[in-house]
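Q: Two folds, back to back.
A: First:
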Amino acid sequence: MSSQIRILFIIDGLHGGGKERQLYEIIKVLSKTPHLKTGIITFNKNGHYSNKIKELVTFFVELNKRPTRLEPFFTIWKHIRVFEPDIVHTWDSLSSMYAYFPTKIFKLKSIDGSIRDAGIENGWQLCLKKYFLNRADLVIANSIAGLHHYKINGEVIYNAIDTRRFHQKKLSNEINIIMVANFTEYKDHKTFMEAAIKLVNNNLISNVYLAGDGPYKQTHIDNIKANHAKIFQRFHFLGFTNNVEKYLSKCQFGVLCSTSTYSEGVSNSVLEYMAAGLIPIVTDVGGMKEAINNNVNGFLIEEKKPIQIVEIIQSLQKDSKKTVNIILNAKESIKTKFSYEQNINKLITIYKKICIKK
C-alpha cells in the first residue's frame, strides 16, 4: 500500500437529498486531508451537488444510466481503471451492483454504504441489496436500526453536521415551522400539512416552510390553494434550496413526518434542525430514537397523528423554560454524538485500517 489512499465514491446521483448532502460534507473534509485522494462516479448528470463536488475531487465522472440500465456495467470499468482506487465506497444498492464485478476483478477493497434507512426495500429489491451487502469488505450504516433491519454486521457512522453552517437566530415575534424533505412516497407530507393547517388557522404558527421537491409537491400546493385559500400565502414551498440554513434560522420548530412502511435511518434533516436551534418533532420510526430522546432533546410522535404535533407546539408556547432546555439539549447532542470532526475522523480511520488489510 502506498502512503496515499485513493478513495472512489460511487453514487446513483447528486440530487438534493440528505444522502447527497452527507457525501458533500465528507468530501469537503477529505479533499483537505493529507495522503487522501478522492474521486467520484455518479449515474445522473447535472445534479444538485455536482458542481460543488466537482471542484473538490481529483476525478469526477457523470455516467448516464439511460437509455439502458445495463450501460454502466460496461462503462464503469474503464473509469475505475483510470483512477486506480484503493477503496470503492458505494452509497446505494444500484452503485454496489454496478461496482461489484470491477472491485472483485481488480481486487479492490469495497465499502457498502447503502444502509441509510431502516426498511425501504422489500421483495426482490431487499434480496438484491442483502446479496451485495454480504459481499462487501465492510458495511457502513448511518444508524444501528439500519444494521439490525438488514441483519448484517458493520460500522455505524452517524451523519456529520457542520454547525458552522447555521446562522444566529434573529429576534422575531413570528413562530414558524419547517419540514425539510423531498415530496416522495418515502415521506408523510399529508400528516405534516394537516398539522400545519390547524396550527395556522388557530394562529399558533405564523408561517410554514417546506423545503424539497418531488412528484407530490404540486398536489399539496393545489390542495392549499383550493381548500385553504385564506392561508395559502403563509405556506412557502421552497423547492430545492442551496441555502436551507437561511430558512432554518427563521423557524422555531422542525418536523419530519415519516411512515413505518419506508422508515428512516437517522435523518440528516432532523440533525440539521437540532444544530440550528430548532425543536425537532419526528415520527418514531427506524433509527430516530438514536437521535431523539423524547421530551429531552426533541419529541417523538406516533405515525399519522397530526394532532400530536399541534399539542406539542401549543404546550411549548406556554413553557419557555422547557423550550430553552430542549434546544440546549439538542445542540449538545450534535456536539457529542453527531460531531462533524468525530464522525469524519472515524471514517478516515476506517479507510486506513481497511487498506492495511489489503
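A: Second:
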Amino acid sequence: MTVAWNASTDPNVVGYNVYYGGASHQYTAVTSVNQPATNAAIPGLVQGATYYFAVTALDAFGMESGYSSEVSYIVPIVTASLKATAMPGGTFRLTITGKSGHTYQIQASTNLITWTTISTQVMGTNGPLTFTDSNAPKYRVRFYRTLGN
C-alpha cells in the first residue's frame, strides 16, 4: 500500500514522517522519506484491518510540524477463485484466479478437516495460475481449496 500527500510549500522542508496505527490518533509505527518524495510504501499491513495515517513535515533544523489531517484505510481482503477440471487418467487441473503478486497455497483434503498444501505459487500478471494434481487418482475423494496472502 502506498500513502501519498501534497508537498509542503515551506522551502526548509527536507522530508516527511508518515505515522500510522490501528486506532484513530494512536500511531504505533512511522516511515520516513526525504524530500522531494511525497509518497511512501507501507509494507506488512494486515488484510481486513483498518489503519489510520497522518503525515508530518521535517525541516532542515530537525523541527517537525504538527500532524496532517488523518485518513483511514481498510486493507482489502485478497480473494481468489479456484476451478477444478477433471482430466484424463483421474487427475485434476486446478485454475486459480486472484490478485497479481500475491502468493496462493493450493490445499487438498479427503475429509474437509485435514488439509495439506500441495502447491504454493505466486500470481503473475499474465492471468490465472494452473496446477495439475497428478496424485488425485490415489484418492477415492479429493477436495480442494486455496489460501492467499
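Q: And?
A: Residues 81-148 form one domain.
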